[in-house]
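Give me the fold.
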Amino acid sequence: MSRVFAILVTFAASFFTINAAHAEVRVLTSIKPVQLIAAAVQDGLGVPEVLLPPGASPHNYALRPSDVRRVQSADLLYWIGPDMEGFLPRVLKGRTLPAVALQELPGLKLRHFAEDNHSHAEEADEHDHDHRPGSLDAHLWLSPVNARVIAAKIATDLSAADPANAPRYQSNLKAFDERLDALDLRLKARLAVVEGKPYFVFHEAFDYFEDAYGLKHAGVFSVAAEVQPGAQHVAAMRARLQAVGKTCVFSEPPLRPRLAETLVAGLPVKLAELDALGGYTPATAQGYEQVLEKLGNDLAGCLESL
């Protein structure tokens, strides 16, 4: 009996030692897409946390006291950077543990607003203050190339923080890269059929994805969510849609701009959504691919239906 008890004690000690090792590295990400990339690297060894709840905007999120405590206590924290989460720098000043601003990683392929005539200055009076011409386009996770760079950084950090499981983190990173290779082929095939078809967006968030797959929006109806544009402004936007003919106008969940229905009334235009954040996507190893694949399917699906 004593020998059985000793075996059970040894097994229990080993079990809790292993699980304690897994629990030692607490990863916190600012937004869902970064959580999904981290989840691919941590697969089987832990689940990263995310700061922003589904539907929250990373541009103007208001931190709660519990959020501040999470920011201070996580072992590893990943955020896009001050060009995206403007609410974080002040809180991060009090953090002593590593906090990685992903926009500063070497090897990223970065874009800037208006660098290639994508400026929406002529299309709107109310500019998003985060999208000033020449400023960094911080929606960098929508590039699979950048996702690979981010995943490699997270794998390096986790391997250093948890050396016993370093081979697993590297194996997960390799599997993620291989899945992205397969996803890239699927998306290129899916989107090739709508290449060159014009469409419009309410938020200039998709340039990285468009650049990766040979797409280009025809214009941006960038209006402040809380402001109803004047009749002259709406008429100008409708004129642009009329000139194009059959097209799609994409908003981002959870909110559709209030002028959307007025804008397309009586025109051969469809309203649809593109979700750049994937807010409700489960934090699994395949979550990041699911966000990009849904983005491609939603975009192609609307344009094919015209």
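The first helix runs from residue 2 to 24.
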